[in-house]
Amino acid sequence: MTDTKYTFPKGFLWGGATAANQIEGAWNEGGKGVSVADVQKFRNPQGLKELNNIKKNTDITDEMIEEALKSDDETLYPKRHGIHYYEKYKEDIALFAEMGFKAYRFSVAWSRVVPNGDDDINEEGLDFYSNVVDECLKYGIEPIITLSHYELPLHLATAYNGWNDRRLIGFFEKYVQAVVDRLGDRVKYWLTFNEVDSILRHPFMTGGLIESRFEKDEFQEVLYRAMHNQLVASAKVTKYIHQKYPQSKVGCMTTKLTYYPYTCKPEDVLAVQQKMRQVYAFADVQVFGEYPAYLRVKFQKEGMDVGMTEEDKQVLKENTVDFVSFSYYQSSCMAANEAGLELTSGNTTIGVKNPYLPSSEWGWQIDPIGLRISLSDLYDRYRKPLMVVENGLGAKDILTDDKKVHDDYRIAYFKGHIQAMAQAINDDGVELMGYTTWGPIDLLSNSTLQMSKRYGFIYVDLDDFGQGTYNRYKKDSFDWYKKVIQTNGESAFE
Question: Where does this protein have coiled-coil stretches (predicted)?
Fold first, then answer.
C-alpha cells in the first residue's frame, strides 16, 4: 500500500446478502408452493473431484423430481429447512443491525408469493416480505431486493419447461407487480435476475430447464431462448418499477467470472476473450438494450431461433438498468488446450489452476487484485454505477467450547478485497455504490447444499445433516466488519 488515504463515498451501502432458498426454510408453510430448490438433493461431495462435477451437483431429471415430491424429508433436501430464517428473521436482522449494516440484499421467493407461479397471489407470502422490509427499515437498513434468485416455482419447470416457454414472461410480470405494489413504497433498490448468465452453467436451478426432456443437439438453442425470455421479462418489470416508483433504481446482476490467460500464447489470450464475451453478454443486453454483435452472429451461423420479436427489441432498448451489480469470489485461468493442466473449482465453474494464487478448502482461488481488475473492467465497459453484491469466503469454521469462532482467515480475505475496492474507487475512478458480503450469516451452500462451507460473520449451529440447535453465535469477523462499517472502510487499512 502507498501512503494515499483510501476512502469510500459518503453513504456507501455496506451490508450483506442472502437468498431465500438458502436461509428461509418453511418450505411448506405460510401458503408457499414447492420451488426448484426444494427438490435439490444433498449429495455430500467428497473431495475436489466431486466438487468439480458441477453438472452432477446441479442437474436434475423428472425421476429425481418425482422421488423428491414423494418425500417430506428435510435432511435429504436441506433447502427445505434452511437456517430457519422464516421464524428467526427478526433475530438475524437485529444482528445485522448490530454490525451497522446500511443495506441488506435478500430475495423474494416467487413460490412464496405465487405458489405455483401461474396461480393466485398468496397474501401471507407478501405479508412476510413486508414484515422483513419493515424490520430492516426499523434499523435504518436499506433493503435491496432480488426478484429471482434460483427460486422458480417447480410447477413452472414441470408443466411449462421453465423459461423455455414464453408464457413465463407474463407470469413473472404478475408476480413482480404484486411484490412491487406491496413493497415499492419502502424499497429503493431492485435486482431482477440473480447471476443472469448462470442459466448456461446450471439450467435447472436458474431456468427450470430439465435437460433430459430435450434432444441434445437442440439444448443450446433452448438455453438461449430461455435466456432471451428472462431478458425480456427483466426489461418489462424494469419498466413497471420505473413507472410506478420513478425514484427507484433497478440493477442487473451478473456473475463476474474473471479469467487470466494461462500463458501469453495468443491462443490462450483468444480463449479468455471469447469466454469473457459469454460472461458479459447478458449484462450487455440489460445495459445497452441490444444483443452484442457476436451473439447475433452466433444465432445466425448456428441457425438458432430465440423467439426475438420487434416488440422484444423495443422493450429491451427502452428499459435498460440503472446500475450493474455482480458477484465476485475468485479468479481462474484459461488455456486453449487444458490437457495436462490442473483444474480447480470456482463459483459453479471450473478453471485452470493459477500457480500464483492460494486456494480455499473448496478449491476457489483467492484473488483480491482480481476484484480491482473486475471493477475497472466493468466500469470501463458500462460507465454505470457498480455494486458488489456477493463476495465471501466459504470455509470450515470451528465453534469452540466457549461458543467462539476465530476466523482470522475470513478477516484476511475481506480485508484484501475491501482494500482492492478502495483502490478501484480512488485510483481507477470507479463509481461504486455498495458492498454486500455473501452470507453474512452461515447458510446452505448453493451448489453443494453443505452447511460446513460457511461464509458468515454469524455462526449457525447446524451441520450438513440437519443436526443442531440453529442457535446463532458471533464470530471474530463480526466485530471486525462492524468496525469496518463504523469507519466507512478505514479500519480495513489498519
Answer: none
**For residue 229, what are the contacts with CB-CB under 8 A and spacing of at least 6?**
163, 164, 165, 166, 168, 169, 307
Q: In Å, how far from its chain's centre is CA 261?
A: 25
Catalytic residue among 98, 195, 302, 431: 195
Question: What's the pLDDT tens digit per position in 131-161?
Answer: 999 999 999 999 999 999 999 999 999 999 9
Per-residue model confidence as pLDDT tens digits over 431-464? 999 999 999 999 999 878 899 999 999 999 999 9
Contacts 24+ apart (CB under 8 A), 464-473: 464/42, 464/44, 464/78, 465/75, 466/74, 466/75, 466/78, 466/81, 470/83, 470/84, 470/88, 472/88, 472/91, 472/92, 472/95, 472/441, 473/399, 473/403, 473/404, 473/405
Strand intervals (E) in 320-464: 323-327, 331-334, 343-345, 350-352, 386-390, 432-438, 458-460
In this structure, is residue 44 part of a structural domain? Answer: yes
> Is 2 part of a structural domain of the chain?
no
Please tell me the total count of domains within the chain: 1
What is the C-alpha separation between 309 and 294, in angstroms, rounded? Answer: 19
Q: Which domain holds residue 31?
A: 13-493
Asked whether 313 and 290 are in contact (CB, 8 A), the reply is yes
- The predicted structure's pLDDT at residue 213: 96
pTM for the whole structure = 0.96
Q: How confident is the model at residue 52 (pLDDT cuts 50, 70, 90)?
A: low
What does the block give as the cell for 7? 476512502
Q: Choosing from 142, 151, 221, 390, which is the catalytic residue?
A: 390
Residue keyed to cell 446452505:
444
Measure the CA–CA gap between 92 and 402, rounded to whole angstroms: 21
Compute the C-alpha angle 329/112/286, nearest 5°: 45
Active-site annotation holds for 390: yes
pLDDT of residue 47: 65
- The four Cα atoms 18, 209, 182, 386 give a dihedral, to 10 degrees, of 50
Q: Average of pLDDT values for 37-61? A: 74
Contact assessment for residue 462 and residue 473, using Cβ atoms and an 8 Å cutoff = no
In a domain, 471, yes or no: yes
> Which segment of 117-126, 219-228, 329-338, 339-348 scores lowest on mean pLDDT?
339-348
Q: Is 108 helix (H, G, I), strand (E, B) or coil?
A: coil
For position 38, which CATH number holds?
A: 3.20.20.80
Residue 2 has pLDDT above 70, yes or no: no
Rounded mean pLDDT, 376-393 = 98
What is each CA distance from 405 to 12, 161, 287, 449, 455, in whole angstroms?
28, 44, 42, 22, 12
Decide if 5 is inside a domain: no
DSSP designation for 454: B
d(CA 464, CA 42): 9
